Amino acid sequence: MEKSQSHQQGRGNEARDVGKQQTPAPYIIKTVASGLQLEGRAGVGGSSSSSNTAKDTKPRRQSLSQRLGLQSLKIIGKDTGGDKGKTTSPVEYATTSSSPQSTVSLGEAEENEEVRANKEEKDDVQRQASSLPKEHRVAEGGGGGAAAAVAAGDNDSGDDSQRQQKRPGSAKQRAVKVECVEMVGEDMYIGTSDGRIVHYTVATAELETDGAPERFEVSSVDLNLGGKKVEQMIAFPALSKLVVLCGSTVVFYRLPDLRPVPANVIPAIKGVSCIAYDERINNSNSNNNSNSNSNTRGAILCVARMRGVYIYRLTGELRLEQEIPMEHSVASICQYGGYVCLADTETYRILDLAKIRASPGSDSGHLVLMPTQQPTTDPHTGRIIRPPRPRTLVVGPNEFMFLTSSGDRDTLGVIVTAMGEALRGTLQFSSYPKSITYDEPYVIAVFGGGQIEVFDTRMPDQTLVQTLFDEEDVAAARPRRICTVSGFYLSTNVSRPEVLEDARDEREEASEAAPISAADVFGSQKHWRREILGDNNPQAAENRAGRALSRFASSRIVVVAQDTAVYALAHPPQLVRADALLLDEGRVEEAVDMVERAMAADPDPDPNLSDEAAYCFQVAGAVCFRNLLLDDALRYFKRGGLDPRALIHLFPDLVSYLGTLLVPLSRIPLAGGLRRALGDIGDAPQLAHTGAAIIAGSDNEDAAIDRLRETLAADVLELAQRYLEHCRAQMLGSSEHQMPFAPDSLPVIDTALVRLYAENEQDAKLRALVEATDSAVVSDLACKFLMDTGHYYHCSLLYKARTAGANDDGSGSSARTKVLDIWHRLLAGEWEDRRFGGFAEYLAYVRSASGDQHELLDEYRWLVDHGCIDASLQLLAMLSDESVASIDADHAIQATEQATETVINNTDALRTLVERFVSAAHPRAAHYTTYLVKAYVRKIRNSYADGASDDDATTVLERAAIAERDSFACAQASDLALTFRTYLRLMRESNEGTRLRVLLIDTLLCANSQAVEGSYDARQTLDYVADVGAADLLVLERAILLVVLGQIDSAVDLLVNKLGDYAEAELLLLPPPPSIVSAAGQPDISSGGFSSSFSLFRLCPATTPFAASSRPDNVRKLLAIYLELGHSGHDEIAVRLVSRLLDRHRDLLIDSSSSVLASLPAHWPYSVAEPFALHSLRRAARRERGSAVVRSLRESLTFDAKTELAAETRAAGAILLDYSQTCAACKKLLGSSAFVFEPDTEQVKHISCT
Questions:
Q1: If you average pLDDT over every residue of the chain, what do you get?
Q2: In three state form, how does the secondary structure of 865-882 look?
Q3: Which stretches of 697-810 are DSSP H helices?
Q4: Where are the alpha helices (DSSP H) in 496-643?
């Protein structure tokens, strides 16, 4: 019979009477097994097919009827009442043959108690069988046990479902009952009434689940002790031993497989009346089955046999440590440490083992407490009334309790210390307990009527705190014995996650609809099937039941009820209590305090938060959320680690926004209580809306309520945002194997945060999120929302981030196109977004794709089409020559001229554009350069004309030209080396016209210099200058054009006579040496200028004759021009120029110094020609002195050679000559002249000819 947890916790009328409504019931009842079919053998002498026989047990001699399987004796006589042929069980025979006046011993009293129990059992079987339908009844001759099993509801599925057997020839079969139980984790050992032990494995029982947990029969062992009932079993898991008392014999088995311990290792103990163990050692080792110390120390076994108490130590063997003789037989015994409390046929007493060991043979160490209840004689019938069996038990360290009765129905439970002092209160029972045990701090008693009462020994009055099995339950369950076991685990599903599955036929249609919200799930909860997740096996219970806060509870008390049912009594886990405080009463602070105290008291704390504690904090957060205590809710959500997807489901807008990316709430693993708490919240924004009206009250104005609603709505969204940020940090900070949430939660979190940041205008956080390398934003969902809400720039950043992380599958190119498309619209003004960085950010992004010429070319064309000239020129510099050559130059130039109203910018842009076309060898580079030059000329003319009409413009230009030349002349007076183009460069910032002239001059020089490819049409440009009326102004420019055309003389004439630029004329006619030109005369295109030493001579065509003329001729030409200036009345400047020319180029005129000096006007000062004349004279003198020295050297060398030859001639000896001998050098006759002989050539020469 299974009772719900809430129903069982409400038991205990006495507890309710004393005002304990808030105190939870100490125990809950859970069915462990029911309807056990144990009929593997019945009666005496039966055998089990799977029995294991102890080697040290000698089989009893059986009668023929017992060997045939018959369990009854046929007795005929007057004692049977003349009912011949009536079948009588051995128990009935013993009852009818006993004398009313006979005096029985304690053993006989025990036998009669068993007779009474068997009789009650028989009556119950017959009563239940008679109440069954006819089709379920069994004939009188057999099947009484089967009828009892059917009446008890025995339809449990398991391996023992078909184990009912009948013995051949048996007329009636006695039902096999459960006598005692021992449980070690998942192993359950059933001691039966026919002397067997049946081993089952039992799954962990769930408190919320009706019925018994699943079980499987492992084995069945026949003790072969005459078919007597198994009275007691004690398991020692640390020793893997099971101690069994059956038929006054103690036998030992190994755990868990029930293999008998060989008799040569541990022999059986016979003649035993009762056994106990040292509960001090057991309590220290009960929760640590693998404790090596316990294996070494073993267990203390206290055995009462015949008239003595024996203390054994059980390890790998059984060793007798102490023997204590007794005068009377012992009926009940218990031990704690060095003290034994027992009841014999005469007294209750406490044995001090240490004193007895010190003084053997004396009464020292025996503390007699009080007499035991003795048999009495019924005054009416004369029958002897035997008292119930005395009971003793340990109720604490060195504390014992024994039962005493005065003969009436009241029974007392007296608690004394080992010294015999009654320091605690006395328990009062309504009747003598049939079975009793202690589970700190409670005493649990089973009475003859089947009631079970629980008493709290901590209270002064030993209060009855709970009554289990009320009248209705007792009739059905019939509890009859209570046992203390090693441990059995129960669990609650309170904190176990579960997923829901829609059981309706419309499941497929619902899956295509929008995601299910919390309100939808809990509004139709009856349609959902639950699938509970999480480990619930006994191994998990073994590992976690020791925690202070756990969903597992360990039960050490079991109740044997009916004949074949076992129930467990367990304390409700603190998790259940905390859950009730949270969900049923909403007492968050108390529940959290309970959880924290439980965690602090955990003997083996886990560094990670347990599932149970996490559940409590999650539910606490949900309860606070429901009450709009948002800061507390956030704190508890963080501590409990609520699945962020579950929180998102409370916001319908986010659910709709995330779509199928968000797992339905029903499929998120959540505990049932948490689902209920979240269901109470439902729609978070709606909760804030309705909560505002409740908080504000009816007295406030609507405006105040609206403001409060807005505040609460913002706070609710802030809670979601802050918690999602927390979860994101947790996931990114955890390793892959310690992820706090499901891996697919991160895309949900990041995508939801994008919307929250955008709605709250948190631009910095939004940008940081979308640009983060670890961002998991689903851009399709986020971009759709951002575009719909006008966050164009952030949408482009999402696409940009996708570009950065794209593979080679083309996704990056597509995302880049979307980025540029958004930015095009922003630049064009179609969309507005203040966050966009404009052209600077745009160009920086485009430059990042410098390798993609196709994209750069497309972007350049877009910029040109939309008049973004400055940006287009920056991209133009990045284009390759091939890409530039493919540009529609006419369109680009036209757009460049029309785009900007500012003359400066327009001209600069146009110049840059044309220069790029020229450098890229554009097919029409010369045409565009000519166009650029004309544009400069036109701009300069307009700048100087300053809006004057065409008729007046000529006059204005002439005046401007005169003013410029006068200003230049003043500057030239102090520096004759100053050129006009240098002067313009110095004055370029004075006015716009001057700056434009500098640009024009640089363009003319660059376009036709030898350093730059491409040229312009000089003749066309020269004509254009004249056509626009700027000839008088642009004299230097005309001179350059004439040089380009090869008309050097005309150019020099303009420079000297029209402009007065004598330095430029000298550079043209007397260019610097090639080494100087290569070092200082290269054009600087980037800065738009040339050095002052750059000669216009370099612009001359290679075929120009003047270009090949010699430098002396050019110097003489310049001298003639300068002398002509003097003749025309400019003596001062002429004198300076001639003096400068003679000083700088005197070496070129030295050969014609006389003519040069003669050409100088007589009225000029001598200082003009003095340096040149002195240089000429010095040079002539140096030349004369050099000639004399040469002559002297030659004479000296000749004399030395002649002297040497003379010596060689003398050394040669006599030389014969005739008068016809001639000189080898001059061919004249030697005659009488002196001669020499050359040994090398053997020639004879005049000494003067050598």
A1: 77
A2: HCCCHHHHHHHHCCCCHH
A3: 702-732, 745-759, 763-771, 779-788, 792-804
A4: 507-512, 518-523, 538-544, 574-579, 588-600, 611-626, 630-640
| Residues near 729 by beta carbon (within 8 Å), at least 6 away in sequence | none
The token pair that represents 1061 in the structure block: 């630029």
What is the token pair recorded at 161? 């479902």
The angle that helices 684-696 and 702-732 make with each other, rounded to 10 degrees, is 140
Write the secondary structure of 419-483 as one string of H (helix), E (strand) and C (coil). Answer: CCCCCCCCEEECCCCCEEEEECCEEEEECCCCCEEEEECCCCCCCEEEEECCHHHHHHHCEEEEE
The Cα–Cα gap between 452 and 477 comes to 11
Complete DSSP assignment for 301-365: EEEEETTEEEEEEESSSEEEEEEEE-SS-EEEEEEETTEEEEEESSEEEEEEHHHHHHSTTSSTT
Contact indicator for 535, 550 with CB cutoff of 8 Å? no
Contacts of 861 (CB under 8 A, 6+ apart): 887
Burial 608-627 (b: 16+ CB within 10 A, else e): eebbbbbbbbbbbbbbbbbe
Each residue's pLDDT tens digit, 267-312:
999 999 999 999 987 554 444 444 445 556 789 999 998 889 999 9
CB 351 within 8 A of CB 365: yes
> Where is 191: in which H helix or E strand?
strand 187-192
Cα 337 from Cα 397, distance rounded (Å): 8
Angle at 911 between CA 909 and CA 912, to 5 degrees: 65
On the 0-12 / 13-18 / 19+ scale of CB atoms within 10 A, 834 is exposed
Is the separation of the CB atoms in 444 and 436 below 8 Å?
A: yes
Residue 636: both structure tokens together: 């508890």
Q: What local confidence, expressed as pLDDT, does residue 815 receive?
A: 83
Q: How far apart are the first and last CA of the chain?
A: 155
pTM, two decimals, is 0.65
**Among 63, 95, 96, 94, CA closest to 77:** 96
Buried b (16+ CB within 10 A) or exposed e, 537-555: ebebbbebbebbbbbbbbb
pLDDT band at 100 (very low <50, low <70, confident <90, very high): very low
Q: Are 490 and 570 in contact (CB under 8 A)?
A: yes
Residues 637, 624: Cα–Cα separation, whole Å: 10
pLDDT band at 364 (very low <50, low <70, confident <90, very high): confident
Q: For residue range 717-773, list pLDDT tens digits in order.
A: 999 999 999 999 988 887 666 668 888 899 999 999 999 999 999 999 999 999 898
Q: 83 in helix, strand or coil?
A: coil
**Cα–Cα distance for residue pair 1136/1122, rounded to 1 Å:** 9
Q: What is the rounded radius of gyration, in angstroms, for the C-alpha atoms of the chain?
A: 62
> For position 699, what pLDDT does the model report?
66
Query: 3-state DSSP call for residue 366?
Result: strand
Distance between CA atoms of residues 750 and 743, nearest Å: 12
Phi then psi for residue 76, to 5 deg, are -115, 130
Tell me if 1171 sits within 8 A of 1143, measured CB to CB: yes
Strand, coil or helix: 757: helix
**For the residues of 826-863, what is the DSSP string, one character each?**
HHHTSS--TT--HHHHHHHHHHTTTT-HHHHHHHHHHH
Rounded CA separation 469/476 (Å): 9
